[in-house]
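Researcher: Re-running this chain for the archive, since the previous output was lost when a drive failed. Same request as before.
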Amino acid sequence: MTPCRSQSGKPNDNSQEAALKRALALLERRAHSRRELSDKLRQRKFPPDIVGQALAELERLHLLDDLQFAELFIREKLIYASRPLGQRRIMQDLRRRGIDEATAKQAWSTVEQEERPEPESERAGEAARRKLASLRDREDPRRVRARLWRHLASRGFDAESAGQAVEQAMREQGLW
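Model: Regenerated structure tokens:
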């Protein structure tokens, strides 16, 4: 890996060394998937071959790992997030970041085994109670139920968990 240098001795903007420096700066801020880093480096006009070499070097140094990224992302969204999310939404967000389904499922399984997070139904219940508390217009129970359903669906909760959560939250508030 011989970096391309200009006459001043500084790395050329399109060199592998410059791409590595940019990628490391991005990784210092937060973890990234391989595709996220690739996209960001390409936005900076690094040639695809240089991007590939830089990412391969980061993987060789164990600084870039999609499985590790997925596990970290799931932990953050499942356990530490202030707003609860469902499994469907978390997996969708991982796919958007370039994590393939097999890696996402493996990461989910690992996090479940290591962390023992709250069941989906409990997270859905918490989300429903919080949303219900923020609603001003509670006069029409059908509208309230529909709004809660939409909210839980947008947060990625499955139909069974959402249905139970909506019913329980509305009962607790005397709206059912």
